[in-house]
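Researcher: Let's walk through a ligand-bound prediction step by step. First, I give you the protein sequence. Second, the SMILES string for zinc ion. Third, you return the three-dimensional complex as structure tokens. Ready?
Model: Ready.
Researcher: Here are steps one and two:
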Amino acid sequence: MKIHHLNCGSVRTIEATYDGPPPAPAVNHCLLLETGADGLILVETGLGLGDVRDPDGTLGADWVEMAGPVLDAEETAVRQVARLGYAPSDVRDIIVTHLDVDHSGGLPDFPHARVHVLAGELAAARAEAPSFRYRPAHWAHGPRWVTYDDEPGEQWFGFTALRAKGLPPQVRLVPLGGHTAGHTGVAVLDGDRWLLHCGDAYYYHREIEDLKEPHPLLDLVQTGSQVHRDLRLGTQARLRELVRDHGDRVEVFSAHDPWEFARHRSG
Ligand SMILES: [Zn+2]
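Model: Step three, the predicted complex:
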């Protein structure tokens, strides 16, 4: 399985908290998995063509003001898929960590895809939209939802992992609670190592190092948008343990940290 790391939507430029990495726009870190027989799997969608055309209408003017999206059509997943030589219909499955505005924007560009999401997240999005975080324009086309409720999970490095329905066993959903009502990580086996896309379970690489150092600006975003503070902080503590105890087997990254993304894009 070939794995591509894609940035599907740059937003406001941020600075690191230490000398070294240059300032960079925050990203929407997505994965495109070339599975062969099972087609393409997109993990996360970032922003889509509809957002580039009408950002205030789809993303909401308040969110645009807060996040400062760059809105470059060439960064959308659908354009990057095309540059790799594929049609949008080759993306048969999409897995989203959650349905926040900046994670669901690409859904309308793949209207035929099955969309895997935790049931609690879909229920919250339907109940609360339209809101700052949930924008119904992103699912007005009626996605083919595949939901996960109380399916039995398997132990996965101290977490519970769910097999992705109809997909190869190298792809798992790893619920990581606290940020939204049904937030999940996505684990992908890459050779003999796992990648764990943590979505918005944390925002800055130094947060899950021993330093436990949040990013001053990104921390405002994550504390302002959490649905359950203790659960979110507990998730981060468990991710810190995962990195400490199994860092040789599992590599974690989050959705928006540009310096984590730079590490993978070149790798
Ligand atoms: Zn986000």
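Researcher: And what stands out?
Model: The mean pLDDT is 96. The radius of gyration is 17 Å.
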